[in-house]
Amino acid sequence: MFVSTGATILHADLDAFYASVEQRDDAALRGRPVIVGGGVVLACSYEAKRLGVRTAMGGRQALRLCPHARVVPPRMSAYSTASKAVFEVFRDTTPLVEALSIDEAFLDVGGLRKIAGAPADIAAKLRADVLARVGLPITVGVARTKFLAKVASGVAKPDGLLVVEPDGELAFLHPLPVERLWGVGKVTAAKLHDAGLSTVGEVAELAETALVSMLGRASGRHLHALAHNRDPRRVNTGRRRRSMGSQRALGRRERSPDELDQMLVSIVDRLCRRLRGAHRVCRTVVLRLRFADFSRATRSRTMVQATDETTAILITARTLLRDALPMIAERGITLIGLSLSNLDNDNAVQLALPFDEHGGPALDIALDRLRDRYGSKAVTRAVLLGHDPGISVPLLPD
């Protein structure tokens, strides 16, 4: 296998993806601040970001910051179509593509120099091809490691290209704020700032043992390695992902248990349809919550049998939500999400018998076919009648 020591890994990341699709499809929105989603900001254009609007912000707060913004409803089918078109460009560039989400991926171009040119030239052509074929701006970072390529794309945004050559890695990385380190969120950043550490270079100067003492073994060792740009991971393209998820931002309005249950039912229905469409089964259900103080919590349960049955997964998800209700009542909730993990191919496991004559796979498959033919709203659960199902944002592409 060809292994390059040069800057041959690309991190390609679409700019303000949902908002960019809206601006592409409606000329009246171009150059104007755009907010996708009403009650909660699902995405916003860079014109809105410059005025302080951020993803997951409440709609009223966003409009106070940016009163002239155009608010548009999300169109998930349009975003899915655009994502698939962009990934076609990625795969036309190199067969070594690793999807990170619906709008970003790593690409390894180390073996293409003789046929396609230097990595910087390949990255420039990739950006031009995405714009020409899909009509969207994209930023690309190029570096020797996946971590640094992702950092480079973040620094180059929006609509930019940045190459970090091996002999300039630490000179580029060390002046950056600690928040640029992969995995540093608000809590970890606060701990580092409290210790007087504000740049990556200052973190790099600490011994690994000091970081482990401050942050714990896993986080300390992880950040020490990244601060020295030690990241041995290669672009991984052959392995199917082990989880899929969806989430919904809720804003800051208080939500009743019934409302949360309705949202959970909607998310489970959509996730299970995706699960069956991908011919996968899952064993573990993970409930993800974000609270009014921006803290987060996860609760998970592993089922005895791997399954793609909506009923079994919904029962498990509802149990997790029920157990979390006291915490939600105390701290308020601003986001609910669900992930299905420990995935496997549906033909790789022995499913449990007998199947329930009142539900189970036959009913799920029939409902999937109806929704495929007549639309996702053709058949719905009684608990969702008269209620807005909201928009569940996929965490990873199908």
UniProtKB/TrEMBL annotation:
<keyword id="KW-0808">Transferase</keyword>
<dbReference type="Pfam" id="PF11799">
    <property type="entry name" value="IMS_C"/>
</dbReference>
<keyword id="KW-0235">DNA replication</keyword>
<dbReference type="InterPro" id="IPR024728">
    <property type="entry name" value="PolY_HhH_motif"/>
</dbReference>
<dbReference type="GO" id="GO:0000287">
    <property type="term" value="F:magnesium ion binding"/>
</dbReference>
<dbReference type="InterPro" id="IPR036775">
    <property type="entry name" value="DNA_pol_Y-fam_lit_finger_sf"/>
</dbReference>
<dbReference type="GO" id="GO:0009432">
    <property type="term" value="P:SOS response"/>
</dbReference>
<dbReference type="InterPro" id="IPR001126">
    <property type="entry name" value="UmuC"/>
</dbReference>
<keyword id="KW-0227">DNA damage</keyword>
<protein>
    <recommendedName>
        <fullName>DNA polymerase IV</fullName>
        <ecNumber>2.7.7.7</ecNumber>
    </recommendedName>
</protein>
<dbReference type="Pfam" id="PF00817">
    <property type="entry name" value="IMS"/>
</dbReference>
<keyword id="KW-0239">DNA-directed DNA polymerase</keyword>
<feature type="binding site">
    <location>
        <position position="13"/>
    </location>
    <ligand>
        <name>Mg(2+)</name>
    </ligand>
</feature>
<keyword id="KW-0963">Cytoplasm</keyword>
<dbReference type="InterPro" id="IPR017961">
    <property type="entry name" value="DNA_pol_Y-fam_little_finger"/>
</dbReference>
<feature type="binding site">
    <location>
        <position position="103"/>
    </location>
    <ligand>
        <name>Mg(2+)</name>
    </ligand>
</feature>
<dbReference type="GO" id="GO:0003684">
    <property type="term" value="F:damaged DNA binding"/>
</dbReference>
<keyword id="KW-0234">DNA repair</keyword>
<keyword id="KW-0548">Nucleotidyltransferase</keyword>
<dbReference type="Pfam" id="PF11798">
    <property type="entry name" value="IMS_HHH"/>
</dbReference>
<dbReference type="GO" id="GO:0005829">
    <property type="term" value="C:cytosol"/>
</dbReference>
<dbReference type="GO" id="GO:0042276">
    <property type="term" value="P:error-prone translesion synthesis"/>
</dbReference>
<dbReference type="InterPro" id="IPR043128">
    <property type="entry name" value="Rev_trsase/Diguanyl_cyclase"/>
</dbReference>
<keyword id="KW-0479">Metal-binding</keyword>
<feature type="site" description="Substrate discrimination">
    <location>
        <position position="18"/>
    </location>
</feature>
<feature type="domain" description="UmuC">
    <location>
        <begin position="9"/>
        <end position="185"/>
    </location>
</feature>
<dbReference type="InterPro" id="IPR022880">
    <property type="entry name" value="DNApol_IV"/>
</dbReference>
<comment type="subunit">
    <text>Monomer.</text>
</comment>
<feature type="region of interest" description="Disordered">
    <location>
        <begin position="234"/>
        <end position="255"/>
    </location>
</feature>
<comment type="similarity">
    <text>Belongs to the DNA polymerase type-Y family.</text>
</comment>
<feature type="active site">
    <location>
        <position position="104"/>
    </location>
</feature>
<dbReference type="GO" id="GO:0006261">
    <property type="term" value="P:DNA-templated DNA replication"/>
</dbReference>
<dbReference type="GO" id="GO:0006281">
    <property type="term" value="P:DNA repair"/>
</dbReference>
<keyword id="KW-0515">Mutator protein</keyword>
<keyword id="KW-0238">DNA-binding</keyword>
<keyword id="KW-0460">Magnesium</keyword>
<dbReference type="GO" id="GO:0003887">
    <property type="term" value="F:DNA-directed DNA polymerase activity"/>
</dbReference>
<comment type="function">
    <text>Poorly processive, error-prone DNA polymerase involved in untargeted mutagenesis. Copies undamaged DNA at stalled replication forks, which arise in vivo from mismatched or misaligned primer ends. These misaligned primers can be extended by PolIV. Exhibits no 3'-5' exonuclease (proofreading) activity. May be involved in translesional synthesis, in conjunction with the beta clamp from PolIII.</text>
</comment>
<dbReference type="InterPro" id="IPR050116">
    <property type="entry name" value="DNA_polymerase-Y"/>
</dbReference>
<dbReference type="InterPro" id="IPR043502">
    <property type="entry name" value="DNA/RNA_pol_sf"/>
</dbReference>
